[in-house]
Every structure is written in C-alpha cells, then in structure tokens.
Amino acid sequence: MTTAISTRRAPHPIPADTLVLREQQLLDEVDLADTSRFGDMIWDLRPVNHQAHRRRFILNFPTLPEPYQQVAKELFFALLAGESPAGEARPKLGTLRGLFTQVKKFLAWADARGRRSLTEMNTDDLAAYQTWLLKQDLGPGQRGAHRRAARLFWLYRAVLHSDRLELDPQRLESWSTDNSKVTTGLENRTDRIPEQVISPLLIWALRWVRDYSADLLAARDEWRPLHNQGKENHPTSTRHTRAETKAAFERLLKDYRAAGRPLPGTGDGQINEKFLARQINRHHSSMRYPTTHAMLTAATAELGVAEDTYLFTPAQQHPHGTPWKTAFRFAEVERWSRLLQTACYIVIAYLSGMRDSEVKHLRRGCISHRFDRDDRIARRTITSLAFKGEHSPLGTAATWVVSDSVDLAVTVLEHLQEPDATYLFAPLPGSPGYRGTDRSSTTSTTNKALNAFVDWINEHCANHNRPDGVPLVRRQRWTLSTSQFRRTLAWFIARRPGGTIAGAIQYRHHSIQMFEGYAGTSDSGFRAEVEAERTLERGERLLAMIEGHEHLDLRGPAAGEAQTRLANLDRKIAYAGSVVTDPKRLAKIMRRDDPKIYFGQFVTCVYDPNKALCRRQLATDDAAAMPDLGTCQPLRCRNVALTDANLDALTDQLTKLDNLLHVGDALAPYVAHRLTEQYQDLTAMLTAAGHLQADQ
What we know:
- By secondary structure, the protein is mainly alpha-helical.
- It has helices at 69-80, 93-112, 123-134, 140-155, 195-229, 242-259, 273-279, 290-303, 333-352, 356-359, 404-416, 443-463, 483-495, 507-519, 526-547, 559-576, 583-593, 613-616, 644-661, 669-688; strands at residues 42-44, 58-60, 367-371, 377-386, 396-402, 500-501, 505-506, 597-599, 604-606, 640-641.
- The strands form four sheets. Strands 3-4-5 form a three-stranded antiparallel beta sheet. A three-stranded antiparallel beta sheet has the order 8-9-10, covered by helices on one side.
- Helix 5 packs across helix 9, helix 5 runs parallel beside helix 11 and helix 9 packs across helix 13 (483-495).
C-alpha cells in the first residue's frame, strides 16, 4: 500500500526481529517465520522469487561501506515492507535487486569521497557524483537510474532513522543536464539480429529439431542409465553373485562381437573398464574378478580397443545424402543434449514471439491442438505464464498460437528433459551449475548457450567445408541474447520479407499465426512492437520516395493530397538540417509529423478518416488514426494513390483475371459475372490512371 508520509525523521529504529518480507507474496512452500529479519546482514529474497529462471537474489549488506549499512537496511526495508511516499509504488523483485547495485555504487563513491554519513552531503557532493556518473561507461538511461537510486535517500527520508539526505538532489541544475529519460513509444533499444545471422541460425536450429533430434534422443536414452549408474550416490541394486556378473558380461561381449565393435577405450589405448561395468549395472571392481578379467583379455585380443568410448546408438538420419554423425561418444552426449535444447529454444522463442521468462515456464503438456471436421490439426496453441504487465508476481496463464515447428520442438524437449523436471528448460544433468530440476535455466545461461550454438555451427561448417555457417557482422561474431528474438520477430512481421525460411516454411504463414497469437494474450505489448516496426519501415519508404522524387509521379484520386503531405514532410526534415539515417530520429519524426500514408500491394492509402470506406465497416472507431488495409475498397475509395509498383501489381492482377475469363465456360455463372465486373472496374481504374490506353 502507498501512503503519504511526513517529512520528519523516523522516531524509532526498526526492531531486529522484524520480518522484512512480511508484505510480500511468498512461495507456497515457504513459512514467513523462516524468512529474513531486519537484524540479518544478508536478506534472502528467494522466498518471493516466483520466476523459475531467475537466479537466487540476496541483499548482501556487508558489501556496502560500514557507515552506510544501517541506513541502507532501513531504505530496503521500506521498499520491501514499509511505508512509501505518495506516488511511489513498491518495486518488483527484479527492480529491487538492480536498485541495490545502484545504491551500492553511490554509497561506495560517497565513502571514497570521505563522507561518513548522508547528512554531511551537500550540493557540491551531489554535483560531484553527477560528474562522476558522466565519466562512467553508462548510457543516459543508466545514469538516470543511478541518480534515481541515490535520490531514494531523500524520498524515503521520513522512514529513515539512522541517516538520510537533507536536500533533494533533483533540485540541482546539474542533475537535469543529462538526458536520462527512458526511451518509450516507437523506439526499441534491443538490438535486432541481422538478417544474415538469423537466417542460418534458424535453419540450423530447425535442422537439429527435425533431422538430428531422433538420433540424439535415442542416444540420450542409452546414455541416461549409464550416466546415473556412474553417480557416487546412485542406489545400489540387489547384490549379484559372481556367476550372475559373469553371465551379464558374457551377454554384453556377445553384443560387441555381433556388432563387430572394438571395446571402449579411454583415449590412451587402455580399456574403459568402468564403462563396461556400467553397461552391466555393476561396480567397476567387478571387472577385476578372475573370470571377468579372463573374458575381457580374450575379447580384447579378438575385437581390439577403440580410441574412445562410444554408445551403441547409431546415427540413422542422413540429411543431404551424407551421415551427419558417425557415432556418439559417451562423454559428448551432455554437450549435444545442451545444443539440442538450445535449438529448441531458438525455434520456440523466434517462431512464437514469447519473452524469455515465458519460454522458461513451459511445462509438459503445454501444447494443445484444435481439430477441424476431418480430424486434421487446425490450430496449435502453447500455454505458459506471462509476467510483464501482470498484476501478480505469480504470473498469469497465457496462450499463444504457434506452428508445427514449435509443436515439434516442445515434443523433443518433453523427451529430452529428465522425467522429474518441472520445466522443459530446466538445466540438463551434466550442465554447468546443475543443481536439480525444479528451476529453469537463467537468462545468462541461455545467452551463453545461444552463442555456443553459433560456435558449433561455424566449427561444424569449417570441418565439413560447408558454406552455410553464421557469418560475421562487422568482422565479429554477432553476440546473441534472449531478448533479441522477440525484437527481430517484430521487425520481420512488420517488414514481411519475401522468400521462405528453411525451405518449406513460409514466413508470412508464421507472421499471421504469431501476430494473432501474441496480440491476443495477456498485456504482451507485442502488437505495439509490430506497429512500431511498421511505422519505422513506412518512414524509411516515405523518405526514400521523397529523396527519389517518386511522390511527384503518384496517380489516383488522392495523388495530389499525397504530394502535398510529402512536400510538407520534406520541408520539415530539410529545416532540421541533416539527412535522416538514425532510426531513433526517424521514430521521433514519425511520431511528430507522420503524413499518414500507408503502402499496400495494390494501392497506397493517403488516409483521411472522413473519406475512408474501410473505417465504416469497423465495429468501433477507437483506432481512427489508422486504416484497415484488409478491408480496403481500392476501386471506390477516394483515399487511394497509386505508385508505379501499385500499377504493376494491378496490371498483373488484370492479366490473371483476363486468363480466367478466357475459360469462362468452366466457371459458375455467378463467379464469371463477378470476375467480369472486377475486370471492368480494374480496367477503368488503370485507364483513368493513364496506365492503359482507352481502347484496351
């Protein structure tokens, strides 16, 4: 709850046994009495961490300068459980942890400056802190966040007992000289994955999911019990007699002989006796029994020793006519499993539009199918938890419409993941930092895995002389991160590039599904991101049209209005005194001076809501600033202008209609009549635009 507080200093210190998480929503299995108290020097925030992919959060006060530890505890108690000043909302967990880092920098700077309390600090000190921030490797938004964190000691001064700032830093003129306003609206600061990177990356990810996964899953099924057998705490089975061990070893050697396989090696010419023992579910000491040792000596003389330890599982898939894998080394299955999990992440994240937190909360059974009358799958949906924009820290169930590729990736993950794993993207056994299956991989872990996947692609292509690796960008490997996939997806949906992805999957098909699915779930904001990208793309085309004087060649009833709007836009840009090449500057121009001209395949809409026929068909008029190109009536609407590309597209359509009408006898009378009307109207339109001769 947010309440107004006085400007007086808190009269009493906070008791040491006060529970700091008393106002937070705890995990179901947590008892409030077991959580951190004010007197603790380290506050564990794990009991309020409801997102499975987040790291363990703590507030480690001993890392702060000693003179400021008490006041820092008072501040963060107020943020977690105390009263807040009017207009200040209680921060979320992720924000709180970031604030701690920013407060730590401020207090460390103050301590290094020789100040032993906040009360001592004056305007010169705060101005010096601003100067110090300007010299750091921080963007304007980051510097603003650091100043904001320091100002909390002023905003929350009435609930701070031991120390506080006595003046408002915001009143310093120097604090307003740096543009720290957070970018909003059309601008998106997340990097977009370049086209030359996302294309081979997605192709390889789909190749792993479709072509390689069956072999890898079969190899992992063989690997899993062998891996578990080698654990020190693996439960021992019933005791076996030496006769039973001999019989089991005989059966194993029979399999090796039948396959003509050499015995597993350790890489230095020695037999991997521990692996052989795992294969018969025995302790490795059983290989030293006289009987088994004699059998092993005889088999070695007959079969030889391999250069490494391999699984029996073969690679069955042969994409492009050549085996993609000759054999699976036992030691490399962990790495290959992580690569497969990463490939599934790329497919799901990119072809669904889900955020990283939403992908990380996928569970078994998250895919649902809707069937048509012929029992064919008509629609696939995926369900997870959405957190951003939601009112509950527990997240809200949300659904996305997805493609068959995402469906297959989920199926692969369900087989790949451990049976007791809570989440599909839980760390796999053998992964660095693996500590069980009740959490999902952190964002930083996934970022490392994404870039390791690119390294594997390029290593594989170099070793096999393949040309389809991931190219460098500005002579460097592009650094991938989870947030870039959603950003890139929005860009591609808005730009609608031609061609196909991975040969058979048409991007436009995915565009419709992903846009519809994401726009309809939760407060995702994905529709706004797509519209922002479309606005930028439209702005680029408008500037290119002005630069090439193409607007002077427009035809159609709205051609004159389009020329006037673009001429006005050209004057405003010219007045600014520089060529527009920066996307951020273009976004500002489009927000301020958008001429409301929209490009389509057959027409260019010079939008005027008073003339628009498409608006009259809509149930509501909440979005009156934009046309509905899907219901455009180009032959009747007075908002239509025609570019050369529009005229060419209309001419091609006229040719198609002409070809259809030449076989009019095979058409139903009503269809033939409607096509004839369209042909006549289109001919009249092209003739009026001067694109056809009157006698054609």
